[in-house]
C-alpha cells in the first residue's frame, strides 16, 4: 500500500472574528507575517491573502482552511468533529485573563440599571444564536438571577453583529447586549463612535477565548508547522506594530477539554444545543 500523500494546498486562510474595517491594514500585516513564517516552516500552498466572504460559515465549512479563527460555542457543537484546534490567542485588553475572555453586559448610558438582576425580563440585542460572547455568555450571566423555571429575557432582537447590537442598545431598540471584551476594546481604540450612548454594567463569566483552527484536510504534520509559525509570528519584532493594534499579547495551546467550559455555561444558561 502506498503512503498517503501529504497535502500541499492550495489552502485558504481567514481571521474573521476581529477583522474590523478600521483594522484591516493591521490584520493584513499580521497575516503577511504569519504567511512568511508558514513558508519558513515548510508549509506549501500558503495563500497570499486572507479570504473574506460575507458569511463566516463559508470559511468555517472549508476543509482546506489552513488557519482560521472560530467561536467557542460552534467549536463545541456543529464543528466539534470538523475543526482541528491549533491554539488560543492571548489579548491584552480589560476582561481577558491569559487565554480566557468574557463579555461586557452593555446598557444605554442613561438607563436606570444598577445590577444584573435589573435586566431580567428586558429586551436583549444579540448578534446570533450560535455566538458564545453575545448569547451563551448573556444567558449564563442572567441564570443566577432568574427564578427557577423563569425566562431571563422578555424579547430578543437578532442583530447579526456586535456593532449592530451596540447600536440597538444606544437607539433604545434593546435594553442589554453582551459584547465580547476584545471587540469592545478594539472599538474603543479604533471606532469609539460605535460605543457612544452605551456603558458597561458588568462582565459575564470567563471562558476560553476564540480558538485558532484548521480544517479537516490539514494533516498532523502541517498543523505542527502552523503552530510553530504562529509562535514565531508572536515573537517576531517586525510584527510588533500589527500585534499592538490587534491587542495580541501571546498564544497558548490549551488542553483538549478546556472548551468544555463553554458547554457548561450553555447548559447553565439553558441554551439549546445547535447542529
What do these coordinates show?
Helix content is 33%, strand content 19%. The chain is of the alpha/beta class and 275 residues long. The strands form 3 sheets. Strands 1-2-11-3-12 form a 5-stranded mixed β-sheet. Strands 7-6-8-5-9 form a 5-stranded mixed β-sheet. It is globular and about 55 Å long. It starts with 11 loop residues before the first strand and ends in a 6-residue tail after the last helix.
Write a compact overview of the structure shown.
With 275 residues, this protein is α/β, with parallel strands linked by helices. The chain has helices at 24-40, 56-60, 72-76, 132-143, 162-170, 181-190, 220-235, 240-246, 260-269, and strands spanning 12-13, 65-69, 84-91, 100-101, 103-108, 123-126, 155-158, 176-180, 198-203, 207-208, 212-214, 248-252. Helix 1 (24-40) packs across helix 8 (240-246).
**Percent of residues in helices:** 25-40%
The low-confidence parts are 1-6
State mean pLDDT (0 to 100 scale): 93
Tally the helices: what do you get? 9
- The chain-level structural class is alpha/beta
Biggest sheet details = 5 strands, mixed
Calculate the terminal CA-CA distance, rounded to whole Å. Answer: 37 Å
Order of helices and strands: EHHEHEEEEHEHEHEEEHHEH
- Share in β-strands: 15-25%
- Side-by-side strand order of the widest sheet: 1-2-11-3-12
User: Care to count the β-strands?
Assistant: 12
- Principal-axes geometry comes out as globular
The radius of gyration computed from the alpha-carbon positions, rounded to a whole number of angstroms, is: 19 Å
Amino acid at each position: 500500500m502506498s503512503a498517503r500523500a501529504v497535502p500541499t494546498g492550495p489552502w485558504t486562510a481567514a481571521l474573521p472574528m476581529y477583522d474590523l474595517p478600521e483594522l484591516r491594514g493591521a490584520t493584513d500585516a499580521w497575516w503577511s507575517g504569519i504567511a512568511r513564517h508558514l513558508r519558513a516552516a515548510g508549509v506549501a500552498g500558503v495563500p497570499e491573502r486572507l479570504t473574506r466572504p460575507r458569511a463566516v460559515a463559508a470559511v468555517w465549512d472549508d476543509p482546506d482552511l489552513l488557519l482560521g479563527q472560530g467561536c467557542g460555542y460552534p467549536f463545541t457543537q456543529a464543528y466539534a468533529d470538523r475543526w482541528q484546534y491549533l491554539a488560543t490567542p492571548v489579548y491584552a485588553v480589560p476582561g481577558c485573563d491569559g487565554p480566557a475572555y468574557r463579555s461586557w453586559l452593555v446598557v444605554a448610558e442613561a438607563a436606570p440599571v444598577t445590577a444584573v438582576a435589573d435586566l431580567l425580563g428586558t429586551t436583549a440585542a444579540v448578534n446570533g444564536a450560535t455566538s458564545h460572547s453575545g448569547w451563551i455568555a448573556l444567558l449564563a450571566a442572567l441564570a443566577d438571577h432568574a427564578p427557577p423555571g423563569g425566562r431571563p429575557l422578555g424579547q430578543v432582537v437578532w442583530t447579526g453583529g456586535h456593532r449592530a447590537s451596540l447600536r440597538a442598545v444606544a437607539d433604545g431598540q434593546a435594553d442589554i447586549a453582551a459584547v465580547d471584551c476584545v471587540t469592545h476594546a478594539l472599538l474603543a481604540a479604533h471606532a469609539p463612535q460605535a460605543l457612544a450612548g452605551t456603558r458597561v454594567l458588568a462582565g459575564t463569566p470567563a471562558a476560553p477565548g476564540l480558538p485558532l483552527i484548521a480544517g479537516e484536510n490539514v494533516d498532523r504534520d502541517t498543523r505542527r508547522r502552523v503552530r510553530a509559525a504562529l509562535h514565531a509570528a508572536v515573537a517576531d519584532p517586525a510584527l510588533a506594530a500589527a500585534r499592538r493594534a490587534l491587542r495580541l499579547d501571546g498564544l497558548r495551546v490549551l488542553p483538549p477539554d478546556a472548551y468544555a467550559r463553554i458547554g457548561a455555561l450553555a447548559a447553565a444558561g439553558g441554551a439549546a444545543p445547535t447542529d
